[in-house]
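This part of the workshop introduces the protein records we will be handling. An example says more than a description, so a record of this kind follows.
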Amino acid sequence: MTGVIDYGAGNLGSVMNALARVGAPARFVRGPEELESKNSGLDKIIFPGDGHFGSAMAALAQSGYDTAIKHWISLEKPFLGICIGLQLLFESSEEAPGVAGLGVLTGGARLFKAKKVPQIGWNRTRIDVKNPFFSGLEENPFFYYIHSYYVVPKNRQEIAASADYDVEFCAAVKCGSVFAVQFHPEKSGDAGLALLKNWTDFH
């Protein structure tokens, strides 16, 4: 069973609809304690969302999800982060100076210097073809993005996909049981659905 974390941010309905379309059983996580319980029935977690880095971290800390997410990942259980769910895995963001992220991955998020920010729309994405979550996708598929900040991992071996928007930026990371993407697979048509199906089927 896939659990979708609802901490009060983001359009989570579209994620649940996409999971239903690929035949993946899913439900909302009812609270952070479910990520620390052996009896929750959850075997993989999706952390979607959008919004401000600082506000999101404050919401996670207030609810207790910050500790619960790090506990889940420490057990090497499957975890998929989407959009802000990618950025919060890192140590910091220029969006909220002085606010510490979850620190699961080293590095931080930077603001695009492009003339038009945020990036909104489809962008061709260079994928790691060896990554099983991208299996069956066309070469350099299009995914849908909505973001003003992009992550810069200190360990470049963790980068699983990249794209260009004024600069080359990290579009996805893979580290152990953690996979996270800057784009929105639930809004990315067939390519996004294929990625979600690959991820849910793989675990």
Q: What stands out?
A: The longest strand covers residues 167-175.
